[in-house]
Amino acid sequence: MTDHDHEHQRTVKPMVDEITDFEVLEIALRELCIEKGLFTAEDHRVFTEYAEQIGPTPAARLVAKAWLDPAFKDLAVTDAVAAAREVGVDWLDPTGFGTPSDFVAFKILEDTPTVHHVIVCALCSCYPRPILGNSPEWYRTPNYRRRIVRWPRQVLSEFGLQLPDDVEVRVEDSNQKHRFMVMPMRPAGTEGWTEDQLAEIITRDCLIGVALPKPGVTTNVTPLVRPAVRPVEA
Fold first, then answer.
1. Over 50: is that where the pLDDT of 64 sits?
2. What percent helix, strand, coil does the chain show, rounded to 5?
3. Which NCBIfam families does the annotation name (predicted)?
């Protein structure tokens, strides 16, 4: 073998990127569950495909409906699980074919002129997936999880959200048994809008609490994100 061959062996890129420890753990746990008969490989495929197609549309529809219907708004803030069913999400059995969810304590946090809510899971990445879909990558990072509970206004400003000093910021920490979603206030300039028009401006970030709904800003617009002043190393 020539020196050129040795050099080629050292520099050639592998066909498959290196997998992480978490991916190794997921594979091992999945294969063990299949071996024990807890579910089949086909069950896993169907559930994975279902989970990947969930998005925030039902949640946006829920908030838009609440903005237009005071009675439904009362239901949403008092019994979020029942309100979710009204927009087609059965929180107790979100997939319709699998084991019912074990995180049944779901609450919708209503913003007011003096209180703004934002959600986080400081421990890991607990998130209301049945109604919001998969969490964004930044939601799972140590930078967001650790900093939002210490410097909420600063972190929100990095998302481009500047709140007045007289507005209290409440950070709600999700956990194994509790999930939260924010109901932002209806913005000015949307008088006479239909439910479809309103739902379009209620983005995923609004439902997490790092943005506010604005006419003309939809899920297709990427918000301005500023660098962190006090970043946290992963």
1. yes
2. 40, 10, 45
3. thiocyan_alph
d(CA 219, CA 217): 7
Distance separating alpha carbons of residues 110 and 182, to the nearest angstrom: 6
Length of the chain: 234
Residue corresponding to tokens 């979603």: 181
Q: Distance between CA atoms of 157 and 163, rounded to whole angstroms?
A: 8
Residue 226 has pLDDT above 80, yes or no: no
Query: Which tokens belong to 1?
Result: 């073998």
Q: Structure tokens of 161?
A: 């959200």
Which H helix or E strand runs over 100? none
Decide if pLDDT at 108 tops 80: yes
Rounded Cα gap, residues 165 and 69, in angstroms: 30
Q: How far apart are CA 134 and CA 48, in angstroms?
A: 11
Helix (DSSP H) and strand (DSSP E) numbers for the chain: 11, 4
pTM beyond 0.85, yes or no:
no
Active-site amino acid positions: 121, 124-126
Q: Cα(183)–Cα(130) distance, rounded to whole angstroms? A: 16
Distance, CA of 107 to CA of 128 (rounded, Å): 10
Q: Residue 181: beta bridge partners?
A: 108
State which of 91-95, 101-105, 135-139, 220-224 shows the largest mean pLDDT: 135-139
Residues in Cβ contact with 196 at an 8 Å cutoff, skipping those fewer than 6 apart:
64
pLDDT at 141 over 70: yes
The full DSSP string for 178-202 is EEEEEEPPPPTT-TT--HHHHHHH-
What share of the chain has pLDDT > 90, as a percent? 55
